Amino acid sequence: TSLCMNLTLPISMYFHAVPREDAFERGPLLNVTIELGTNIFYAPGVVDVRKPHGSIDIASIIVPVLVGIIVILIIIMFLVWRNRGKKDNQPDSVAYTANQSNNYHGNSTRNNERFPLISSTSISDQLSPQILQEMSTVLISRSKLVVDRDNIIGKGHFGTVYHGEYITTQISKLNGNPINRKVAIKTLSRIEDTKAVEKFLQEGLMMSDFDHENVLTLIGISMDDDGSPMVVLPYMMHGDLLQFIRKPTNNPTVKDLIGFGLQACKGMNYLASHRFVHRDLAARNCMLDETYVVKVADFGLARDIYEKEYYKPHERGGGMPIKWMALESLQQQTFTIKTDVWSFGILLWELLTRGVTPYPDVDAFDILHYILDGRRLRQPQYCPDALYELMLSCWHPSPDTRPDFKTLVRDMEKIYGEIYGVHYPGKAGEMWLDVNYINVQDVHIYPSQVRTSESRSTGGSMVHEVF
């Protein structure tokens, strides 16, 4: 016994035990034993290795989250790569970033006027490189435009033209402030697809190369805060020519009306010299500025504002200005400078009747047969004989026999110089403002190209063939 000694264990002992990997399978209660050396054995009790109620398997959460993050990163990298590829093909000068500019007047419902069917923020990304290149030369910063959305110049199914101001780089010598230029801002109401946007922009870009006193020119193109395009044009104080000559409070003389026609003729001569075919020359598509200078234009909204002037055949595209179209345009859908000459003759007739719709007693469906029969518009009461003869030359059945615009300018200047300022009788020429004016007499100027038997039996079918 002298070799033995008393062994005293501490009252309190703390152990940190890590269960083996198979502990949860062998559980839930496992015996705990403590061995010190080879002679001391201690059994303090059991340990509960069951998972607490409501515990969460961390691994089952972390793994799906990591996989999701990786997938999202891959998608983002792909989109960035694709976007960079697109931008490499686009001029940097037309890159557009939407901002929250407040350069507009009007209530907060302005965005309700547009109903885009494609994402407006992606419009510039979807335009063709050619359109983007042309836009880069006429692009106007949105911050330079003030749009008055409560002041509408014209509105149709597909577009609205607003009053606005263009803040130029010119500085006033009086107060040192930037000079604001009054402009007309044309917008799209419905953005149906990229083709519609490109057509809208092409109509504006087409005017960027024009430089003539009697042709409306483009100021620039801008992108609105929501990404939709805007075409910026000079503001025309007196609106379109048709509206002006129909207004009872205006009182132009015969010389004034012929002068308007002469200015339009000069503008068309300029366009013809650049091989430009208008296709829709009419009083509604000529504008008047603050000094009564005529600007040949295609304001784009004429088809909406003067919708009844355009014939819309069934199962066909947009309306056609049937009563202004030349014979070959009606027959073969051919448009040339000589078909514009025909339309110019109709424009002169509009002027001398103060805005009467051509062939008011003839249905648009019957116009082709009417013209083939050799009939033409009757001479207006106050129209000089020389001017009516000029109109008739514009309506010759053979395009080659019609005068060109250079000849028309010369003849118009001669007629204009021989006319004195003769006013219409009555108050503001009220006798000419009745748009229900009827051609009392048929005027057979040219030989009929329709046989009597054909006109009776197949005349209707001929019109059907055109449309």
TrEMBL record:
Residues 96-110 have a biased composition (Polar residues). Residues 92-113 are annotated as: Disordered. The active site is at 280 (proton acceptor). It is found in: Membrane. Residues 147-415 form the Protein kinase domain. SMART domains: TyrKc. ATP binds at residues 186, 284. It catalyses: L-tyrosyl-[protein] + ATP = O-phospho-L-tyrosyl-[protein] + ADP + H(+). SUPFAM superfamilies: Protein kinase-like (PK-like). One of its GO terms (molecular function) is ATP binding. Mg(2+) binds at residues 285, 298. GO terms for cellular component: plasma membrane; receptor complex. Keywords: ATP-binding, Kinase, Magnesium, Membrane, Metal-binding, Nucleotide-binding, Transferase, Transmembrane, Transmembrane helix, Tyrosine-protein kinase. The chain crosses the membrane at residues 58-81. InterPro entries: Kinase-like_dom_sf, Prot_kinase_dom, Protein_kinase_ATP_BS, RTK, Ser-Thr/Tyr_kinase_cat_dom, Tyr_kinase_AS, Tyr_kinase_cat_dom. Its main location: membrane. GO terms for biological process: cell migration; cell surface receptor protein tyrosine kinase signaling pathway; nervous system development; phagocytosis. The record marks 424 as: Important for interaction with phosphotyrosine-binding proteins. It is a single-pass type I membrane protein. This is Protein kinase domain-containing protein. It comes from Ciona savignyi.
